[in-house]
Amino acid sequence: MGSAVQYVLMVIKRVQVFNRNIHFRKPAKTSRNVFTERSINIIRLTDENGIHGHGEAAPLSLLSVDDTPNYDKALQSALSDWYESSERNEFDFSHLPSLQFGLETALLDLRNGGTHTLFDQQFTQGEPIRINGLVWMAALNDMRTEAHEKVKAGFQCIKLKIGAHDFDQELALLRKLRAQHRELEIRLDANGAFWMEDALTRLERLDEFDIHSIEQPIRPGEWEAMADLCSNSPIPIALDEELIGVTGARQHELLEVIQPQYIILKPNLIGGYRAADHWVELADRYGCGWWATSALESDLGLNGIAQWAASKHPDMPQGLGTGSLFVDNIPSPLYVKDQALHYDKAGAWDLEDFLSDADLIFELKDQ
């Protein structure tokens, strides 16, 4: 983060954490869970001039390594230790990746004057980021309708979550979709739903639909089995949940063993921007592609991930279209149009109004 952040750390006068639930427009279903609401924590750092820096710390249910019943206490304890330390610029919350992500975001925001501009990139200056259209699990007819609506809205790349329905019926859906949209780029996400015993057979059957890639076909942690799939699958495989909780030397080991075609980077789940940077370096070394995906954050977290991704000059669609899923998201300049995420330079953030309905659950300040 450099000396600029170290200077900011020297003048922080207050740390606050606010909590609020935000709600989905309709249930968001995967093969693992159904989401109807999302609990988010907003970290606010205040410097001696009254400037605020904000970040989001929000574990994702049943997926984040820090999704634990005592998360609030762990967050407060970690922030207390950090605030009272004489070496605030040295912190490693890899055991609490959402906190690492939130604190890094708040520090970068504070360093840049509380403007929500975090990285050197063109996204906040009006250059949009191309994204995929996301089709959530639902009744198959509803998924088919939503996929066609995404194409009608201009998306040239869509992602469908599969694995919860009868596999033959899912194949039928894809067959009709491909027949109607020959040039469409189709990504799939199985969320680990395939059994190892028949995963390769399923991937071979999916191959007829010219699939761009499939995320996490089998559950994470089975490195040898995943390596075998990556070596033999006719469809490129992207690791997603496989990266969660993998830190340090094991990042290198994972890519060396599995050798995937792609990796999916979710800073909130893998330990912030520094961890994501390391994954990108390793991906370049091992010759695998990557893209960034949000993990159902509010627009505050989504903004940070989008800016980080934009700073890397990605050449393929990113998975950053989740902000519109919520009815009570943070008012922000982010919006989706023409298969891209945009940042309205004339738009405004309204965190104060959002936080007025939140609970202050933690506060530290200089005496």
Describe the 3D structure:
- With 367 residues, the chain is an alpha/beta fold.
- It has two domains: 3-115 and 352-365, Enolase-like, N-terminal domain (Enolase-like, domain 1), CATH 3.30.390.10; 123-349, Alpha-Beta Barrel (TIM Barrel), CATH 3.20.20.
- The chain is built from twelve helices and 14 strands.
- The strands form three sheets. Strands 5-6-7-8-9-10-11 form a seven-stranded parallel β-sheet. A four-stranded antiparallel β-sheet has the order 3-2-1-14, with helices on both faces. Strands 4-13-12 form a three-stranded antiparallel β-sheet, with helices on one face.
- Helix 4 (140-152) links the parallel strand 5 and strand 6.
- Helix 1 (3-10) packs across helix 3 (97-111) and helix 8 runs parallel beside helix 10.
- It is globular.
- The model has no long low-confidence stretch (mean pLDDT 93).
In short:
The chain is of the alpha/beta class. It has helices at about 5-10, 70-85, 95-110, 140-150, 165-180, 200-205, 225-230, 250-260, 265-270, 270-285, 300-310, 350-355, and strands at about 10-30, 35-45, 50-55, 130, 135, 155-160, 185-190, 210-215, 235-240, 260-265, 290, 335, 340-345, 360-365.
